[in-house]
Amino acid sequence: MGKEDIIYIDDNPFTFTPGETILDVAHRNNIFIPTLCHLKGTTPTGACRICVVEVEGARDLVASCAAPATPGMVIHSESKEVINARKNIIQLMLSSGNHNCAIRDFESDDWTSFQLKTLEADQYNELCPVWGDCKLQDLAYRYQVTTRHMPLSESKYPIERENPFIQRDFSRCILCGRCVQACREVQVNNAIDFGYRGADTKIIAGTDVPLKNSDCVFCGECVEVCPVGALIPKESLKAKTRFEDIKKTRTTCSFCGVGCQMELSVQDNKIVGINSAGRDVAPNNGSLCVKGRYGYDFVASPKRLTTPLIKKEGKLTESTWDEALDFVATRLNEIKDRSGSDSMGVLTSARVTNEENYIAQKFARAVLKTNNVDHCARL
Amino acid sequence: MTNTIADIETADVTLVTGSNTTENHPVLSTFVKRAALHGKTLIVIDPRRIKLTQHANSWLRPQPGTDIAWINGLMHVIIKEDLHDKKFVEERTEGFEALAETVKKYTPEYVEAITGIDADDIVATARKFARARVATILYCMGITQHTCGTDNVKSLANLSMLCGHMGKPGGGVNPLRGQNNVQGACDMGGLPNVFTAYQSVADPNSAKKYEAAWDVEGLSTTPGLVVTEMIQKAELGELKSLYIIGENPLVSDPDLNHAEKAFGNLEFMVVQDIFLTETAQMADVVFPAFCFAEKEGTFSNTERRVQRVRKAVEAPGFAWEDWKILCELATRMGNPMNYENAEEIFEEIRMVTPSYAGITWERIDQTGIHWPCPTEEHPGTPILHTAQFTRGKGLFHAIEHQPPAELPDDAYPFMLTTGRVIYHYHTGSMTMQSRGLNELSPECFVEISSNDAAKLDLADGEMVNVFSRRGKITARLNVSEKAVDGTIFIPFHFAKAAANRLTNARLDPVAKIPEFKVCAISIEKAA
Ligand code: SF4
Ligand code: SF4
Question: What is the pLDDT of residue A182?
């Protein structure tokens, strides 16, 4: 390995492969460089500039997500200038919009009026619905950004609520463009894009219509990648408390045959949200579809069957397991004795687990003694 | 699938046919769309102007039920222009001469006459597909749900082998499984002719192996009935009892009016499910079961990857796991079946299933493994047929075009094809519990082209009656750009206007899959 493929970050040498950016090398080696707009696997846009670093010999700070590593490069990841630049960016982002978590500080009276106004706009009597789970808030805390003397800004665009799944709050949007990258380059649904210009810039769907009238298919990829509280699952507004006793369980989606890996968030024995299992987890690499991500109401549906039923006088009537199992066992044995094994059939299911399918065919073959076992995948 | 999902992005050419991928396999479709975005060639061959056509370099539009003809047409051009992979054909396959002979008459002009696809498009597509370094074929129910479904699939395999696109990364012939565990249900022997891992029930050796493993005697070596045959036998009164697990054939079956009668004829019917489905309502006994979020186990996805399912919540009321219900029943019938938990069942599966033998729950804790995986040291097999086919050499099947069982005529002038929409799943017993999904897709619709609507003097949003020789439904008309003149699409999810009251139960003679994708219908304004 020659000197050619080495760069220096904070005085330590690191190798790189041609084509890697400064950010790639840093992250591979667990060196902290913050990012907001960067989305793995998509074209870097350099929109947020929070990832700037100092490169010796360069006139300005360099956005590390878009700058390829070159041999011998000397980089300072968190010099004074870098820190100042990042603080500036964060300050600007924080002061535009309803960032009503405690990070946004004011003189006391201003804070009160700001808070009241925000609660009214939100129709929600909590702080920003993602506080504690927001990249902007994390960074503001890390760099101890104060916004005390920044004036209150008006939100230009109202919150969009008119679809069942996604709430869009333009005031909290920092225009990082991750959602646009996710929609156009990961999901390739091409539903949203940057619209208008300058201070009026807004993420728009189609010709600035509500999501539900656009090409959006509610895959929720944009929601999963939004670093702030601009895009949130509507369902999350219903959670009782955001952090208490949330248990996460990794599992496999139960709809189509792709087998997406997902994480169920459960509170009080109820699913309160579903996310992908992460951008490095095959086969779905962080993507889900509308059914997998939002179609979980059926699990806790009041219409679920909860007890065995036996048809009595033409009506399905509640019974105990003992009664129902004995009844079925007796009837099946009778039919087997009278009409023979091949007068019986079992339909197993493309919906249940391998273990259950195995038991179902074993039941047909070893107990009923027939090969009349099939499932409905042909249908 | 012979190959993996991730593999799709490495193909030079992707040919998608009979799959409305963006609606039925939305996440898989992102791989296809990204490949196109990054400059790879995407060819869509489908009777509907599905969304994927917007991402495609070309869209070929065959008449429903004419797939063998266009596939033979492509092969005709490839052989005539000497574009086939001679080395692959020579070393890895047999039956080439018979194939070449059969496709001789499928000239682009002949194919145009049958399929309606422009002769020039046949030639251009054949060249693109054959000249690609590697090309993949993705297909779904649009290929299989025909009376000639098995032949359609064989024809696609012919095409891939002919060009040597089989057995390498980015290639292969890839069926997209519509339900989460179709692959697993088949692997586990949920089929009338095979035990797990496709070991034939008619082979006395496998029967012996299972008798030993299960400690039973007298396993039947006669292959059983497939679901569609069971329904026919029920109607004749020859099938007396049916035990149904987690399926809703009374919405998903073809020719529902008939199927209902057949089910009513059964002496005894048991359903085990999570909802009181249309099918469960007809049962003599209904057992409440767990849903996926309540249990431990594994699913095998469309790329043969065995993945973990984990319990996240407690099941409601007195529901039980599906396996526990069956084991308890077996025990009460005098054949004890006892397992501590699902993992113990999986350990038994490994013992009798060579392709799963090397997979353990521990190994797949984080990342699933593709079968075949014969030993615990084996990494699994993402791509099949890399060195040879299951039978050794790949066999070409010389196949002639056969028209669908029912074609439009004066009385029923339109072709009906059925399928799904993105917001619902199968018979909707799960998705229709979601207010959000119902809001986005509230009801059944009849998708028609603007020309046809104008001809019938019908307007978008109007209620219409749709008739076939088997039944009638009423639903809202949806004038759409997706529809092509002469062909109507109706989703089958909705029990209230069940498209399967119209469909034809005629079966493919081998796979016994009904012809959901073509039948003849008529439409008129609802009074
Ligand atoms: S909505 Fe979120 S992801 Fe999109 S630009 Fe705004 S802050 Fe970034
Ligand atoms: S939900 Fe999906 S389709 Fe809709 S805007 Fe977000 S990324 Fe695009």
Answer: 96
DSSP character string of B49-88:
--GGGGG-SEEE-PPTT-HHHHHHHHHHHHHHTT-S-HHH
Q: Measure Cα distances from B22 to B26, B237, B271 in Å.
A: 4, 42, 32
For chain B, domain boundaries: 6-176, 414-525
Question: How far is residue A373's CA from residue B191's CA, in Å, rounded to a whole number?
Answer: 6
A96 band by pLDDT with thresholds 50, 70 and 90: confident
Domain at A247-300: CATH code: 2.20.25.90
Architecture in CATH for domain A155-239:
2-Layer Sandwich (3.30)
| Residues A62-83 pLDDT 10s | 999 999 999 999 999 999 999 9
CATH numeric code, B6-176: 3.40.228.10
Query: What ipTM does this complex have?
Result: 0.90
**Nearest atom within ligand 2 for CA of residue A182:** 7
Q: What mean pLDDT do residues B403-416 have?
A: 90
- Provide the whole-model pTM: 0.91
Read off φ and ψ for residue B290, nearest 5 degrees. Answer: -85, 150
Is the pLDDT confidence value at B521 over 70?
yes
Q: Which CATH architecture has domain B414-525?
A: Beta Barrel (2.40)
- Residues A369 and A341: their CA atoms lie apart, in Å, by 6
pLDDT on residue B74: 97
- CA-to-CA separations, B427 to A62, A107, A370, B175, in angstroms, rounded: 55, 58, 28, 21
Chain B contact for A346, CB < 8 A?
yes
- CATH number for the domain whose boundaries are A6-78: 3.10.20.740
Lowest mean pLDDT among A12-26, A35-49, A320-334: A35-49
Å from CA of B302 to ligand 2 middle:
25
CA distances (Å), B192 to each of A12, A370, B196, B250, in order? 65, 9, 11, 21
Tell me the chain B residues in contact with residue A360 when contact means C-beta distances shorter than 8 Å.
190, 245, 322, 326
